[in-house]
Q: What sequence folds into this?
């Protein structure tokens, strides 16, 4: 195995050519298909990728062309990225669950002539938008199922394209190598479209240097080696997957595993047993919810053991993770918990072998974060964004804090502006927003400092604390701070609550929309003989309202202890009649709340929360899974929540 630090290729294809000389037989990727894990060695991955590159070149794909890629995590789709880069082209992954209109924007804006689609579902989206995207010449598919009767002049099998490429390479064996050698570190490596929380997505242009330097620095920071196992299950269009699976994997040389489907991720995670793991907070929240549901269904003895040893873990586990001194009796008690509870639980979750785990994308609730660390999982937070090639701050081992996001890693500078905004400069700073010089100039200064749009500060330990999006942090009418995301994360710790939107800026008090978690609350309803026929009916049930109210009032008691946020206790709330949905434009594809859309769509509900009404009628347009649109109507109950008596003392 060659040391990754010895590889000095300026682009990913150049790095792969160097690695091939030493590691051609090493496992590079696995994919689970029909229940069986199938392996691509580095040699096989490169052979297919370069054959595809030659086939694309034969079809007219040229340097600086863009290649839109749509599908789940698949070795051949990662290979498509390598193929485009080998020719000096630019891969542009799109979110696989995007509707056709969202795909159309990316394809049109990126000026793509070629699309590689995983299967019939993605091919159909590509064909649906062809009239609006006349540049598109070819749609290439990987999975042939259901695609026999499509126009072969437009729709092609990837096997056919690779076969053309192999024929071309027989006549000109050095064609792809010659193209690869023309590459420079400053060349565009990829364009990633942002989630678009405030408007149309922007295409973030990242260079090979951005990704390669970031990957090398991160691997060194956390001791990531070729021996890691990683499960690639996050969208390929998200910068997190491109850094943690693609860039760090190719630099370090570890094996990247692709799950069979989104529905089998949990099972595949257990089978692989990753050593290096990354997930956004919503995944950790979802896993914790499923754990709590199972424990509520468990027998009395198992439930008692779980509750007892989780108290032990809360007291001792985090201290042990941080290398602090712990009394012998507490160590023994924790060891017993590891034997009876923590070990079996981590094994069930597929996290037994995790050496380093990261979460990022948005803030994670401190309670959720400490739950995993108390189990002995080395979960750490990082702070970053697409424009930084992820990393702005990281948490070194031994100084991990639930309320902060660490310190700048080597090569990264961070400062706080007078208005509290976090700005940074690093080797990962993006080149530009594609075809958007105005937005680039607004975000990045001439000397490469980038405005994050986040409000934060450095604490006494020198660790960065992020309060919220700067534009979202507001003030109540009593001039106290209102930080919506902080409140929402505290509520999402409860397994019964899936999503929250809070309101309070320039108001007298704070209110909230709640989405219940259908799995957790449905399980609760079954155990308590509460009958329901739909999400809407369950959400409106008086006992469900009481359940949610209890969660809110627990959060209010916690907020009462915080002198900065005691005024932000939630006084009124309602449970929405539908789940907030990316297909309805209410969430981004990475499940971030689009607050502007919520304010516009549910304005009357928001006003009802503040004007004292006990009920409010709402009619909402929704998109069904088959593409049809419809209306959901409901007369929603609005309830008051108790405010802690300690509020006045904390605020005084």
A:
């Amino acid at each position: 195995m060659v040391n990754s630090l010895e590889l000095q290729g300026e682009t990913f294809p150049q790095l792969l050519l160097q690695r091939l000389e030493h590691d051609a037989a090493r496992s590079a990727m696995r994919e689970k298909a029909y229940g069986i894990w199938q392996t691509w060695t580095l040699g096989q991955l490169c052979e297919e990728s370069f054959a595809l590159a030659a086939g694309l070149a034969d079809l007219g794909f040229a340097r600086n062309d863009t290649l839109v890629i749509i599908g789940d995590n698949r070795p051949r789709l990662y290979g498509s990225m390598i193929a485009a880069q080998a020719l000096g082209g630019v891969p542009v992954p799109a979110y696989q669950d995007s509707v056709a209109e969202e795909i159309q924007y990316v394809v049109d804006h990126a000026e793509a002539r070629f699309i590689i689609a995983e299967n019939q579902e993605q091919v159909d989206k590509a064909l649906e938008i062809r009239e609006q995207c006349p540049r598109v010449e070819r749609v290439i598919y990987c999975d042939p199922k259901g695609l026999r009767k499509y126009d072969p002049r437009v729709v092609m099998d990837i096997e056919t394209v690779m076969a053309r490429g192999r024929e071309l390479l027989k006549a000109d064996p050095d064609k792809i190598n010659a193209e690869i050698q023309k590459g420079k570190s400053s060349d565009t490596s990829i364009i990633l479209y942002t989630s678009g929380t405030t408007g149309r997505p922007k295409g973030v242009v990242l260079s090979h240097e951005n990704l390669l330097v970031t990957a090398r620095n991160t691997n060194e920071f956390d001791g990531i080696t070729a021996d890691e196992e990683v499960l690639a299950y996050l969208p390929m269009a998200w910068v997190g997957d491109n850094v943690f699976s693609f860039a760090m994997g190719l630099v370090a040389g570890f094996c990247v595993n692709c799950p069979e489907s989104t529905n089998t991720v949990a099972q595949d995670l257990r089978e692989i047993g990753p050593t290096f793991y990354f997930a956004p907070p919503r995944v950790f929240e979802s896993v914790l919810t499923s754990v709590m549901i199972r424990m509520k269904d468990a027998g009395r003895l198992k439930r008692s053991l779980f509750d007892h040893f989780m108290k032990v873990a809360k007291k001792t586990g985090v201290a042990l993770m941080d290398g602090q001194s712990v009394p012998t009796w507490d160590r023994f008690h924790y060891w017993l918990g590891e034997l009876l509870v923590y070990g079996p639980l981590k094994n069930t979750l597929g996290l037994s072998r995790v050496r380093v785990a990261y979460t990022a994308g948005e803030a994670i609730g401190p309670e959720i974060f400490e739950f995993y660390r108390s189990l002995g999982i080395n979960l750490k937070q990082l702070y970053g964004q697409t424009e930084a090639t992820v990393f702005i701050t990281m948490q070194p081992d031994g100084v991990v804090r639930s309320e902060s996001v660490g310190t700048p890693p080597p090569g990264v500078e961070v400062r706080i502006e007078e208005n509290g905004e976090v700005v940074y400069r690093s080797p990962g700073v993006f080149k530009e927003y594609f075809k958007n010089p105005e937005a680039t100039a607004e975000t990045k200064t001439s000397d490469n400092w980038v405005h994050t749009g986040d409000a934060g500060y450095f604490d006494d330990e020198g660790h960065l604390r992020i309060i919220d999006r700067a534009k979202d942090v507001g003030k109540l009418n009593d001039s106290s701070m209102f930080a919506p995301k902080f409140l929402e994360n505290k509520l999402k710790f409860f397994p019964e609550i899936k999503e929250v939107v809070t309101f309070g800026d320039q108001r007298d008090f704070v209110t909230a929309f709640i989405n219940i978690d259908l799995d957790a609350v449905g399980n609760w309803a079954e155990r308590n003989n509460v009958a329901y026929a739909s999400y809407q009916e369950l959400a409106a049930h008086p006992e469900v309202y009481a359940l949610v109210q209890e969660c809110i009032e627990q959060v209010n008691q916690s907020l009462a202890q915080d002198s900065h946020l005691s005024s932000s206790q939630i006084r009124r709330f309602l449970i929405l009649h539908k789940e907030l949905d990316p297909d309805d434009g209410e969430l981004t594809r990475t499940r971030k709340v689009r607050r502007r859309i919520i304010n516009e769509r549910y304005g009357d509900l928001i006003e009802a929360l503040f004007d004292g009404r006990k009920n409010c009628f709402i009619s909402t347009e929704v998109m069904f899974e088959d593409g049809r649109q419809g209306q959901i109507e409901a007369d929603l109950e609005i309830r008051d929540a108790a405010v802690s008596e300690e509020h006045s003392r904390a605020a005084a």
About this structure: The CA atoms of residues 31 and 181 lie 30 Å apart. The chain has four domains: 10-278, 279-377, 381-468, 474-651. Confidence is low (pLDDT under 50) at residues 647-652. Residues 10-278 form a domain with the Rossmann fold fold (CATH 3.40.50.12780).
